[in-house]
Design goal:
With 475 residues, this protein is of the alpha+beta class. Helices cover 28% and strands 20% of the residues. The protein has 13 helices and 20 strands. The strands form five sheets. The protein has an eight-stranded antiparallel beta sheet with strand order 16-13-15-14-18-19-17-20. Strands 1-4-6-5 form a four-stranded mixed beta sheet. The longest helix is centred in the last third of the chain and has 16 residues. The radius of gyration is 22 Å and the shape is globular. The two termini are 22 Å apart.
């Protein structure tokens, strides 16, 4: 039976966390230690899986909630948790496993920054086929948010590339699914990953990720980006169909469709006293300063918006051997027409979100053939120009609604777009939003998945101590 934190006092909880993690790695939370606007009470940085398990056991004994945090690049994504007692920082659950240079997989600690993994693999001529837009993101954070970038077109999301996964359940028990890099023989497909894959996109609500084993790819000898100006979602639809029909095997097909005719939006940090702080009170000067320098703010300042009448851009990434990439690029130029061009580097908007701090950020998913209808529905419902950017080839794009939109207007836009997407087996998720919007609207809008998630929550976290309220349906 839980004794409750109040029965032993906050100072005693801090002392016990320090015993588990070390004196320098446990403390009372500060202004920047918040999850979607909800402030934590303590921060614990365990030095390994055993220490992380002890933190979870301590939380279980005293009925404390636990929310994992990686680099914090997406800590403002998703629903507001009901409470955040202990923020479990995974920064010391890091490292890249040692495998032979020719190994088809690599095992990575959940707290390892993805760019550190890529730098390590690059020395052996390999990479993970993961390129999420969040600068400094950890592998665990990418999996927990189900974040992906342009390379998802060919290789799938990080979750789809999983070979094995290890995580801690709410009681601190280590659970393994699939195979580790050391166990993988390549002859037998991995088993038991269905349960592990439920943790992808769960925002820490089903378990604390410890490590993941993913497929590693050889670095491509050549990369080129072929771009063409575009003016409308329907034009994009027709061009993407033509690219697919040409059998060019693109690594990515990305779209940038700006909000033409809109003035640039301010992206400065919120002023002291703004209402976008933790629910129920204004943001202090210290919190405003902390948020302005928070990792979650990086990578979200959009490029200057174009003047009225300027075009968007459709860009296709081709990878492979130098000669065959050059041949495919020539064929792609013919498919896209005379306005297309080839470059050895990505456009400035590549791997960047179209939303800025303070916006209501949406992720729209639909079959690629229906994406144009979803974008038109979003524009019609909004009634004003808005930026859309993302993977046109797989039907996943992000859009930005101005943070000044009132809650009822955002709710109306979501209802209209979700109604259109329902018939097309798509969805619209609120990725991030001002606190007033996040409190009043359904950020997920996925009633169909709630029974399955409720079953998983009951199995993995029956007492709802892990990120309570972060999953759809308030689970």
């Amino acid at each position: 039976m839980s004794t409750g934190a109040g029965s032993i006092g906050a100072a005693e909880i801090t002392r016990r966390l320090a015993e588990i993690c070390g004196p320098s790695f446990a403390r009372f939370a500060g202004a920047a230690d918040e999850v979607a606007g909800r402030l934590a009470r303590w921060v614990a940085v365990p030095g390994g899986p055993r220490a992380a398990a002890e933190v979870l056991r301590l939380a279980a004994r005293h009925d404390l909630s636990v929310v994992p945090r990686g680099a914090g690049t997406k800590i403002d994504w998703g629903a507001v948790p009901a409470r955040v007692d202990i923020m479990l920082d995974t920064g010391r659950l890091a490292g890249v496993g040692h495998q032979p240079a020719a190994s088809p997989v690599v095992e990575v600690g959940a707290g390892t920054p993805l760019r550190a993994v890529q730098a390590t693999l690059e020395r052996a001529g390999r990479r993970l086929a993961l390129d999420p837009p969040s600068p400094g993101a950890t592998l665990g954070g990418v999996l927990a948010a189900d974040e992906s970038g342009p390379l998802r077109h060919r290789y799938g999301t990080a979750c789809e590339q999983l070979v094995g996964l290890r995580w801690l359940n709410a009681d601190g028990e280590l659970v393994s699914a699939g195979r580790s890099a050391a166990e993988l023989s390549g002859a037998t497909p991995p088993v038991g990953l269905d349960l592990g894959r439920l943790l992808c996109g769960s925002q820490g609500g089903l378990g604390v990720l410890v490590s993941a084993t993913l497929r590693a790819q050889a670095l491509p000898a050549s990369q080129v980006w072929v771009s063409r100006p575009v003016w409308s979602p329907l034009e994009v639809h027709d061009l993407v169909r033509a690219v697919f029909a040409a059998d060019l095997d693109p690594a990515a097909v990305e779209l940038d469709l700006p909000a033409t005719g809109s003035p640039p939006r301010p992206v400065a940090a919120p002023a002291a006293g703004a209402t976008s702080g933790p629910p129920g009170r204004p943001m202090s000067a210290a919190e405003a300063s902390a948020r302005a320098n928070h990792p979650a703010m990086a990578g979200r300042r959009p490029d200057p918006l174009p003047v009225r009448g300027s075009a968007g851009e459709l860009t296709v990434l081709l990878e492979g051997g130098r000669s065959e990439v050059a041949e495919r690029a020539d064929r792609l130029l013919a498919v896209l027409g005379g306005a297309a061009s080839v470059a050895p580097y990505a456009p400035a908007w590549w791997r960047r979100y179209p939303f800025a701090p303070g916006d209501t950020a949406l992720r729209v998913e639909a079959p690629a053939k229906d994406l144009h209808a979803a974008v038109y529905a979003l524009r019609d419902a909004t009634g004003t120009p808005l930026s859309v950017r993302g993977s046109a080839g797989v039907g996943v794009v992000h859009a930005a609604l101005p943070g000044a939109f009132p809650v009822d207007r955002v709710a109306g836009i979501l209802a209209a777009v979700r109604g259109v997407l329902l018939a097309r087996r798509g969805r619209c998720v609120v990725v991030a939003a001002p606190s007033a919007v996040r409190r009043e609207v359904d950020v997920w809008g996925e009633a169909a998945v709630i029974p399955r998630l409720r079953e998983a929550k009951e199995h993995l976290d029956p007492h709802r101590r892990l990120a309570p309220g972060r999953l759809p349906g308030g689970l």
